[in-house]
Design goal:
By secondary structure, this protein is mainly α. The chain is built from ten helices and four strands.
Length: 255
């Protein structure tokens, strides 16, 4: 029986508002992956040194030369690398202490899900899920929410492999996502959406810095609602293009 798309939010959209990327995607990915490795361990200078491929003694003793993006910018000066890091800080992808703001967390969660998609497409079973342990908690919970929003049971074997190596709280969230994916086939559309609303409360990251957008209708400010689960899809995050007032006005005209 062919699956319906009832689990995906039924929203009419003329444009898809994805996160702005101030650097080319390979560079953005390299910087954010490196930042993720040193959260709470260092700042922008250490990040720049890793990307430069510094041979500094302390850096080598900490094993930071084994980070995948080590030396990514080896041909650039430290000043040029710092400028790129500052671009991401200014754009909201990073804070100076490298803690995860919403854009960074969403981007990293999307990268993790894309990696799982590639493995599934190629029939690859990862040897270990240890790479997910000790990651930013907000990013991991966002990753689980994006898996849940897909409503697809194909992720369950990976979730089952991941669960035993995690800390107790994350283990509980993984178990719950597995149970909900197994349950979603029997749920009606309204029940499924209600379940997502409830799970949004525990899995969607709250950013202390609001994401401000511009309404495409009235040019007024539009604050992104972190708890609006319809903005989160398996393949990305989508922002509303109109503020609540303009949407309500449009609905009134249609009626």
């Amino acid at each position: 029986m062919q699956k319906t798309n009832r689990r995906k939010p039924n929203r009419k959209q003329t444009n898809e508002y994805r996160l702005n990327t101030p650097l080319p995607r390979p560079e953005l990915l390299a910087v954010l992956q490196t930042a993720d490795e040193i959260i709470a361990a260092g700042g922008r200078t250490l990040l720049a040194k890793i990307l430069k491929g510094s041979k500094e003694k302390l850096l080598l003793e900490l094993g930071l030369d084994h980070i995948p993006a080590y030396g990514f910018y080896r041909k650039l000066t430290m000043e040029q690398i710092m400028e790129k890091v500052d671009v991401l800080i200014e754009a909201g992808y990073l804070k100076t202490e490298l803690s995860g703001k919403l854009p960074m967390i969403v981007f990293r969660a999307e990268e993790l899900l894309r990696e799982w998609e590639n493995w599934l497409d190629q029939g690859i079973t990862p040897v270990s899920m240890e790479y997910l342990k000790d990651r930013n908690r907000g990013m991991i919970l966002m990753f689980l929410f994006k898996i849940l929003c897909s409503g697809d049971r194909k992720y369950i074997p990976f979730l089952q492999q991941w669960q035993p190596i995690e800390f107790r709280k994350v283990q509980a969230e993984i178990r719950q996502v597995i149970a909900e994916l197994n349950e979603c086939e029997r749920l009606g559309e309204m029940e499924w959406h209600e379940l997502l609303r409830e799970r949004a409360q525990s899995l969607i990251v709250r950013s202390r810095d609001p994401v401000i957008l511009m309404c495409q209708e009235c040019d007024g400010p539009l604050v992104f609602d972190h708890l609006d689960f319809s903005c989160y899809r398996a393949d990305g995050i989508y922002f509303s293009e109109k503020c609540g007032h303009c949407r309500n006005t449009e609905d009134g005209i249609r009626e």
